[in-house]
């Protein structure tokens, strides 16, 4: 009897995970078809690495999870830039651009927090506006280095951050 219950529990859990996986793949497919900047593989991977997404049962659950994920990444990248500034190991002429990036990540963090409030109240239109504002920040950070003709030490991080913000932004267009 105990064994039987375990077997049933196993299949119930398996079904839950499979359902979440299908939701993730279908949603990422739709989003990538609508937005050529959004990479399907990165979208699926980003959700599959996130415990909150694995149990999502709806598109709104995925929007919430991916916005939280984008906010964590923003704080992570801000920390990387602050570490570079503290270490003083940066190319000459890059300090002011690095400091500007820290401010841009703060702005992105604020926009993402606003978006989270909107999402929790089901206001996806306002969430979309705040996510769009946040999406501009990694590119603006990169522009600061280009203007000074110096190499950005965080290009890869900014590309990843862009994708992380693009996912919930694309998903808010799917309601
Ligand atoms: C992100 O924003 C929230 C609220 O706007 C703030 O409380 C938090 O300290 C910010 N995090 C960072 C790392 O700046």
UniProtKB/TrEMBL annotation:
GO terms for cellular component: extracellular region. CDD domains: PMEI-Pla_a_1_like. PANTHER family: OS02G0537100 PROTEIN, PECTINESTERASE INHIBITOR 12. Residues 1-20 form the signal peptide. This is Pectinesterase inhibitor domain-containing protein. Belongs to the PMEI family. Residues 19-171 form the Pectinesterase inhibitor domain. The keyword Hydrolase does not apply. It comes from Brassica carinata. It comes from the Eukaryota. InterPro entries: Invertase/methylesterase_inhib, Pectinesterase_inhib_dom, Pla_a_1-like.
């Amino acid at each position: 009897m105990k064994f039987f219950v375990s077997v049933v529990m196993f299949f119930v859990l398996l079904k839950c995970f499979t359902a979440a996986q299908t939701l993730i793949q279908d949603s990422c497919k739709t989003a990538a078809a609508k937005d050529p900047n959004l990479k399907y593989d990165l979208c699926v991977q980003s959700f599959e690495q996130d415990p909150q997404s694995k149990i999502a049962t709806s598109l709104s659950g995925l929007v919430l999870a991916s916005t939280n994920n984008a906010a964590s990444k923003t704080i992570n990248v801000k920390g990387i830039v602050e570490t570079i500034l503290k270490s003083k190991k940066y190319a000459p002429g890059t300090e002011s651009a690095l400091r500007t990036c820290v401010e841009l990540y703060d702005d992105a963090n604020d926009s993402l927090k606003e978006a989270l409030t909107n999402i929790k109240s089901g206001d996806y239109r306002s969430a979309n506006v705040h996510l769009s504002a946040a999406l501009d920040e990694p590119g603006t950070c990169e522009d600061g280095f280009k203007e000074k003709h110096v190499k950005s030490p965080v290009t890869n991080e900014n590309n990843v951050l862009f994708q992380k913000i693009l996912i919930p932004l694309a998903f808010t267009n799917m309601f």
